Amino acid sequence: MQKMKLDKRILIVIVYVALFLEIFWFTPFQIKKFIHLFSEVGRLRKNIVQFSSQKNYQQNLLSRKKEISREIIELKSKIIAPQDVSVLQAYLSRKAKENRLDIEEISPNSPQEYKITSQGKFLALPVDIILEADFHSLARFFDDLEKGDYFLAPKEMEVIGAKPYHRVNLELYALIKEGRW
What we know:
Elements: H1 8-77, H2 85-98, E1 102-108, E2 112-117, E3 120-133, H3 135-146, E4 152-160, E5 166-177
Antiparallel strand pairs: 1-3, 2-3, 3-5, 4-5
C-alpha cells in the first residue's frame, strides 16, 4: 500500500473548503429546516389544543342534548291527555289527603283553548275544588302542586274564614294536549 503524502497547504485548503461549505451551505440549510420544523411543531400544537377544546365542546353539547331530551320527556309527562282527567282528579285528591285537606268536591269543567303551536293544540282545563283546610296545610298543598306531576296553576281562590278550618273555593287550571305527540 502506498502512502499518500499530502501537502499541508492542500490539507489546509480542504479544511477551509469543508468549513466554508459547512458554514455557508449546510448550516443555512439546516437552520431553514429547523425553523420550518419549529413552525410546523407550533402549528401542530395549536391544532391539538384547538381539537381538544372542540372535542370538549362537542362532548358538552352531546351531554347537554341528552339532558334537554330528558327535560323534554319530563315536561311532556306533566301535560294531561284528554282521557286522563280522572287520573288528575285522583292525583288532586291524593295530594289533598297527604296535606290534610278535607275535599268536598273536585269538578273539572269544559276545556278552553289555550294555545296552538307546532307541537299541537293545547287546552286549559279549569278544575273547581271546594275544600276545608288551615292555611299551613293549604300552603303545603300548593307547594306540592307546584313541584308535582302535572302543570297546574291556581286561577282564583276564595277563603271563607272559620275556626279551626277555613272553607276554600279554588279554581285550578291544568294543561291538556289534544291528540298525540
